[in-house]
Design goal:
Layout: H1 5-9, E1 13-15, E2 19-24, E3 30-39, E4 42-47, E5 56-61, E6 68-79, E7 84-90, H2 94-119, H3 125-136
Antiparallel strand pairs: 1-3, 2-3, 2-5, 3-4, 4-7, 5-6, 6-7
Helix pairs in contact: 2-3
């Protein structure tokens, strides 16, 4: 069920663990997964079930406001010891930029939580964003 490695290696991949919902147009329910990585073309995620190649799915990330929701195509499916790793490519390339922004928001929110846990310092989302950007944005992968 795996396609050629060409589809999997065209873009640099960046590790990311973002909770996402995946639903297929022909299936009414959705499944929550975590991304494995994000690249300039799409992302990969773990799934208990395989997805057929070229299936169109809707990806939703509901931890930001507004919610991120985009259509994508399954471009590869790899069997793992437990479940599958699925690679999807966004149908709208503007979605890639928006997904990377969501990834940054997730990092900032995690930074805010870490600061509270480590030092007891309560930051607003804006304060956390400003601190995170000044400390880490330059090292955040560009593509």
């Amino acid at each position: 069920m795996q396609s050629s490695t060409d589809a999997r290696r065209r873009f640099i991949r960046h590790p990311a663990e973002i909770p996402i919902e995946i639903s297929a147009s022909e299936v009414s329910d959705s499944h929550v997964n975590n991304t494995h990585n994000i690249s300039a073309g799409g992302l990969s995620f773990a799934s208990a079930d395989p997805h057929p190649l070229h299936q169109i799915v809707t990806l939703a990330i509901r931890i930001t406001q507004p919610w991120f929701e985009e259509k994508a195509e399954v471009v590869w499916c790899k069997k793992l010891d437990k479940g599958y790793e699925i690679g999807i490519e966004f149908l709208n390339q503007d979605a890639v930029y928006r997904a990377r922004m969501v990834e940054q928001v997730c990092h900032i929110e995690q930074y805010r939580k870490d600061m509270k846990k480590k030092s007891g310092k309560e930051l607003t989302s804006q304060e956390a964003a400003l601190e995170w950007i000044s400390k880490y944005a330059a090292d955040f992968p560009k593509a």
